[in-house]
Specification:
With 177 residues, the chain is α+β, with helices and mostly antiparallel strands. Helices cover 36% and strands 21% of the residues. The protein has a six-stranded antiparallel beta sheet with strand order 1-2-6-3-4-5.
């Protein structure tokens, strides 16, 4: 860590500004890619990580899911959806178990994890018995197995996050020209 500060002190203003601008470009590029994915997929969160084993054997903890959420596509029984419940920050990945269609065109959904013994009514907001279209973040369209384990490890073990950041900073300092 001391060598990092020494390297920063040895940089002239132009080199330091170049490093700051490069970092800003990387961050802004990542944000533009994310926003572009949101527009293309129609989902507020086009990529999610499976955080539990409730969907095994279909999806495992750490799988990275790609989502779409097009308004014109009706949700069907058997589809795997990602939904958010009022009062919970983390989206849930489960399968649509039942549909409830009304004569006025509104559709409500009941979900359940493949590896769970009961439906999700216990996970919904108090008094909520069904999900509606506004609760749906997206539908699972593809996956990369276990790629999201990096995210899980960094959240469950913050020291891993700091070690990765320190390693990345060290690598950048060693390999810069």
């Amino acid at each position: 860590m001391d060598s990092l500060f020494e390297d920063l002190r040895r940089m002239n203003k132009r080199q330091f500004l170049y490093q700051v601008l490069s970092f800003g470009m990387i961050v802004s590029s990542a944000l533009m890619i994310w926003k572009g994915l949101m527009v293309v997929t129609g989902s507020e969160s086009p990529i999610v990580v499976v955080l539990s084993g409730s969907m095994e054997p279909a999806f495992h903890r750490g799988d990275l899911l790609f989502l779409t959420n097009y308004e014109q596509d009706p949700i069907r029984v058997g589809e795997i959806v990602v939904f958010k419940v009022e009062g919970r920050d983390i989206p849930i990945v489960h399968r649509v178990l039942k549909l409830h269609e009304r004569s006025n065109g509104t559709v409500k959904f009941l979900t359940k994890g493949d590896n769970n013994s009961v439906d999700d009514r216990g996970l919904y907001a108090p008094g909520q018995l069904w999900l509606t279209k506004k609760d749906i973040v997206g539908r699972a369209r593809g996956l990369l197995p276990y790629v999201g384990m990096v995210t899980i490890y960094m959240n469950e073990y913050p020291k891993v996050k700091y070690a990765l950041l320190a390693g990345l900073a060290g690598y950048v300092l060693i390999h810069r020209e």
